[in-house]
């Protein structure tokens, strides 16, 4: 009986200590206090040192190739950005140019300037002259400062009688590749409720213009092209509305509206907002962009001495005409431009 009790207590103690009755106790490990130190690595022999040198050289070559590839990628992106900027600038220049045909031979550059200056600032008027008769050949290329001025002139001056002849107004067609870029520019501009206003009386301020045009809706900004004289403008600018309906109502109601004795020319903005500078203060375009924009026709036509236009003196479309012989630049006259009724 005593043995059973002793055995029972022994079994109970084993269970409390976490051991099963049929399992022997784990022997305790003896700790001596000694540390195991790793074996010392052998020194590299000559072959191993050569292999290590080759590995380092290979790693350096790979790193240099990665850096060169990254630099090449950056250069390609920069070239693409420059090319896109050049294409966009060429498209903007083309959008700002018009062709005028059937011009009376007795009229000169000044008559063309007076007739077309109500639409905006004219940068150049290029007329081709006949050396035998010392008269122009009846057509001219006009470049405005803005694409909006060229578009309004194209819409409103075709068929107008000047000097007894119905003039023809069209677009130069010497860079067909620019059409997708032009469409992209106009698509971006169409998203904005923005209009172009020209033939604004010089005595009217931006505040005066806003007070007239805000009848069609809330205006966010009125920006008039500054002139060289402080506080003066050049008679045209842009108005930003808060919604497209206000912009459309302003165009339909205010185009050819008599404001201060001058007929306003109003149309939708064709280009995204750009900074407006006084005359002779705008950044000069790089010669590469200018030559690409104005001289591109020579690489597209079989005859580099010809360029394609939309119309000629006989009304033929896409006819070949000689390029402009002379480029003249004269200041805008101080006299008031004639109204549309007077031109007709």
Structure summarized in a few sentences:
This protein is of the alpha+beta class. It has 10 helices and 14 strands.
- Provide a count of the helices: 10
Question: Strand percentage, roughly?
Answer: 15-25%
In CATH terms, the superfamily of the largest domain is RRM (RNA recognition motif) domain
Largest sheet: 4 strands, antiparallel
Radius of gyration: 40 Å
Sum up the overall morphology in one term: elongated
The second-level CATH architecture of the largest domain is: 2-Layer Sandwich
Helical percent range?
25-40%
Q: Secondary-structure element order, as H and E?
A: HHEHEEHEEEHEHEEHEEEHHEEH
Mean pLDDT: 77
- Count of domain modules: 2
Give the C-level CATH assignment of the largest domain.
Answer: Alpha Beta
**Low confidence ranges:** 283-344
By DSSP, the count of extended strands is 14
Provide the spatial order of strands within the biggest beta sheet.
2-3-1-6
Structural class: alpha+beta
Description:
The protein is of the alpha+beta class. It folds into 2 domains: 74-187 and 283-344, 2-Layer Sandwich (Alpha-Beta Plaits); 193-268, RRM (RNA recognition motif) domain (Alpha-Beta Plaits, 2-Layer Sandwich), CATH 3.30.70. It has 10 helices and 14 strands. The strands form 5 sheets. Strands 2-3-1-6 form a 4-stranded antiparallel β-sheet. Strands 8-9-7-12 form a 4-stranded antiparallel β-sheet, sandwiched between helices. A two-stranded antiparallel sheet has the order 4-5. Strand 10 and strand 11 form a beta hairpin. 26% of the residues are buried. Keywords: RNA-binding. Pfam families: RRM_1.
């Amino acid at each position: 009986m005593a043995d059973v009790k002793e055995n029972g207590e022994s079994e109970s103690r084993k269970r409390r200590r976490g051991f099963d009755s049929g399992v022997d106790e784990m022997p305790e490990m003896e700790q001596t206090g000694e540390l195991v130190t790793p074996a010392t690595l052998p020194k590299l022999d000559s072959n191993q040192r050569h292999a290590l040198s080759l590995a380092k050289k290979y790693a350096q070559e790979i790193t240099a190739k990665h850096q060169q590839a990254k630099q090449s990628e950056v250069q390609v992106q920069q070239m693409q950005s420059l090319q896109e900027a050049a294409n966009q600038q060429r498209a903007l220049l083309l959008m700002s140019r018009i062709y005028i045909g059937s011009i009376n031979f007795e009229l000169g550059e000044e008559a063309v300037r007076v007739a077309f200056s109500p639409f905006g600032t004219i940068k150049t008027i290029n007329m081709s002259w006949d050396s035998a008769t010392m008269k122009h050949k009846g057509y001219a290329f006009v470049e405005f400062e803005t694409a909006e001025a060229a578009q309004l002139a194209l819409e409103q001056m075709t068929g107008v009688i000047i000097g007894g002849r119905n003039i023809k107004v069209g677009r130069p067609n010497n860079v067909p590749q620019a059409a997708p870029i032009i469409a992209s520019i106009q698509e971006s501009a169409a998203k904005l409720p923005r209009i172009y206003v020209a033939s604004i009386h010089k005595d009217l301020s931006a505040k005066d213009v806003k007070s007239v045009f805000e009848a069609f809706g809330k205006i966010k900004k009125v920006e008039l092209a500054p002139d060289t004289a402080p506080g003066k403008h050049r008679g045209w600018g842009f108005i930003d509305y808060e919604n497209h309906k206000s912009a459309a109502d302003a165009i339909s109601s205010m185009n050819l509206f008599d404001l201060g004795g001058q007929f306003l020319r109003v149309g939708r903005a064709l280009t995204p907002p750009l900074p407006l500078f006084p005359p002779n203060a705008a950044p000069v375009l790089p010669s590469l962009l200018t030559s690409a924009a104005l001289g591109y026709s020579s690489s597209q036509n079989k005859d580099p001495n010809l360029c394609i236009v939309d119309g000629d003196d006989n009304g033929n479309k896409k006819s070949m005409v000689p390029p402009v012989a002379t480029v003249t630049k004269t200041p805008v006259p101080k006299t008031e431009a004639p109204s549309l009724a007077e031109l007709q």
